[in-house]
Amino acid sequence: MNYFLSEEQKMIQELAEQIAREKIRPVRAQLDEAEAFPSELMQVLAQSDLFGVYIPEEYGGLGGGILENCLAVEQLARACIGVATSFAASGLGAYPILLYGSEEQKSAYLPDIAAGRRLAAFAVTESGAGSDVTAIKTTAVKDGDHYILNGTKQWITNGGEADIYSVLAVTDKAKGPRGASFFIVEKGDPGFGFGKKEKKLGIRASATRELVFQDCRIPKERLIAKEGMGFIIAMKTFDKSRPGIGALGVGLAQGALDIAVEYARKRVQFGKPIISFQAVQHKLADMATKTEAARALIYSAARHMDTNPPDASKVAAMCKVFASDVAVEVTTEAVQILGGYGYMRDYPVEKMFRDAKILQIYEGTNEIQRNIIGQELNKEYGRIKETFF
Amino acid sequence: MKIVVCIKQVPDAKNVRIDPNTHTLVRQGVESIINPFDLFAVEAALRLKDRHGAHVTAITMGPPQAEEALRDVLSRGVDDAVLLSDRAFAGADTWATATALAAAVRKMGDVSLIFCGKQAIDGDTAQVGPELATILDIPYATFVKELNLDGPDHLKVVRRTDEGTEVWRLPLPALVTVLREVGDPRVPSLKHKMRAKKATLPVWGIQDVGLDQDRVGLSGSYTQVVKVFSPPRRADRVMLQGPVEDQVEQLYRYLKEAKVPGL
Ligand SMILES: Cc1cc2nc3c(=O)[nH]c(=O)nc-3n(C[C@H](O)[C@H](O)[C@H](O)COP(=O)(O)OP(=O)(O)OC[C@H]3O[C@@H](n4cnc5c(N)ncnc54)[C@H](O)[C@@H]3O)c2cc1C
């Protein structure tokens, strides 16, 4: 379908697709099997300028927005969402700085992130604080010109691999939801270490680790915006990043659909290619329709989000929930179409099926996304004096 | 330092068929790609540029659509590109091609290093590089797998030969033809891609490079293709595996089965 992309946007798409095809596809099975972080691919991506598509030109980026980022992520995800997640998580880590950082912070960190010289990560989750972000226990206490952080973050994508971490910590417990703040912590800061690397069902090329803060001392200039802004920054960051999770879903679904159609055209049973059976055709038809619907939603939502609209949270949640559900459905059906072969590691759909599940969990579970959409609907309709009926 | 990389557009080997009667390539409707070995030449040049700084110019002799190949390498970080294109160049053999390229390199002036791929996958002659160096009267090394500058005006290369590897030190200016071992071609970058899209590429014809009609193209070619045929298939090869004792055992059995006299 023609989505009326600009020349520049098409170039981003084309380049990301080339990297996915030439560099990621040949190694994805190996990375998955070895649970190996794709350092070399991160360097390829760095050299391609793709890390900077959404970062303003004055900080070394290309000055695009969410749509540009989604276009890159989608193409990378066609080959492997483990690799694409590592790429996208750097953006997630960068957004608190991009949205709320001081001029000094932006010029200190964004050019490196845009060039892919340093990876970023985003650290909110703890063992007792998943969906309920307000339950975090990690603390940051001011001590003269420094803050001292204590606590443990869990399941942080790019943990141990990234150099720059946006970390949420409690600065004033008494203030409740206004008592948390974001900090920039760098790999190598005193008292900052990493826990074990998690063993996962899918996206095994991405690194997921604990971050451990033991009297970790950082200069007070590492506070992002003001004390108490933490949860607002987290929410605004998710508004920017969730369409990207949708793009991961669209890319993954497209990758699985491509394989399923190709396979169905070649696989012969009862003397005919299985694509000639209506049951198979209908599955493929639904897969293609859902994938295209998800793409149409992501692209138009991303364009809309780039205008900073008031309904950003709702639309971002819609992107995430819809496209991730589509990715799970489409990859499940792709395995079904490949039958026993689909269940074997010889074909990539086995991995895609395992990979898809994470999209319904991280960056806020799909239940939480539906909560957000529902709450926003309640608010919106509450403001309307007179309804249509 | 000025570096020139010679590249060539070739039909995509994956989709090429051979005409069973004429034994020539059926090129109609086949997509063109950059000769894969030339992409290694580009990579070798860009790596040298990354390490020591250099100005890298790509050149190709071909029809107007060969511009596409030049834009591709510009998008990978080559600084500028020249298209040698003129009806008079048509039908050139390797010598006439090298003659045209040599004239273009002379026109650029002050070139320290020329990179070529080890061979083009359509003609497979591996001659243009050496001929170009011969015409320019500069030293050359073929089948190079590693290279680096050795002091300000020498190049050290490792070449692969049938017998093993050789290390050479060449005074600059020089020409090398490279193998895939020099490094995987990098992907384009967005910034270079945008620059490549907008770039205007100079097109040089025979007058621009100061050549006469009779020295280029078909009329400047010494070779004529009289007949094209498929070479006879080489005999099957078997790689013996396992510990040496087993391999000797296996080899003995093979020779015996082949009824080698005396066994
Ligand atoms: C591979 C991976 C990578 C991750 N990367 C990062 C990262 O980079 N940074 C980071 O900060 N975090 C990261 N996370 C954490 C992730 O965001 C959380 O796992 C997620 O938010 C859910 O939290 P939880 O796992 O504690 O589940 P819980 O919150 O315990 O939820 C369990 C179940 O209860 C449901 N539930 C909970 N509350 C409600 C409610 N109010 N209404 C309805 N249903 C509810 C949930 O939807 C879910 O089904 C990552 C997680 C994984 C697995």
TrEMBL record, chain A:
Residues 6-116 form the Acyl-CoA dehydrogenase/oxidase N-terminal domain. Residues 121-216 form the Acyl-CoA oxidase/dehydrogenase middle domain. Its cofactor is FAD. It is an enzyme of class 1 (oxidoreductase). The keyword Oxidoreductase applies. It comes from the Bacteria. Residues 228-377 form the Acyl-CoA dehydrogenase/oxidase C-terminal domain. Keywords: FAD, Flavoprotein, Oxidoreductase. Homotetramer. This is Cyclohex-1-ene-1-carbonyl-CoA dehydrogenase. It comes from Desulfacinum hydrothermale DSM 13146.
TrEMBL record, chain B:
This is Electron transfer flavoprotein beta subunit. One of its GO terms (molecular function) is electron transfer activity. Residues 22-213 form the Electron transfer flavoprotein alpha/beta-subunit N-terminal domain. Keywords: Electron transport, Transport. PANTHER family: ELECTRON TRANSFER FLAVOPROTEIN BETA-SUBUNIT, PROTEIN FIXA. It holds the Pfam family ETF. It comes from Desulfacinum hydrothermale DSM 13146. Transmembrane segments: none annotated. SUPFAM superfamilies: Adenine nucleotide alpha hydrolases-like. It comes from the Bacteria.
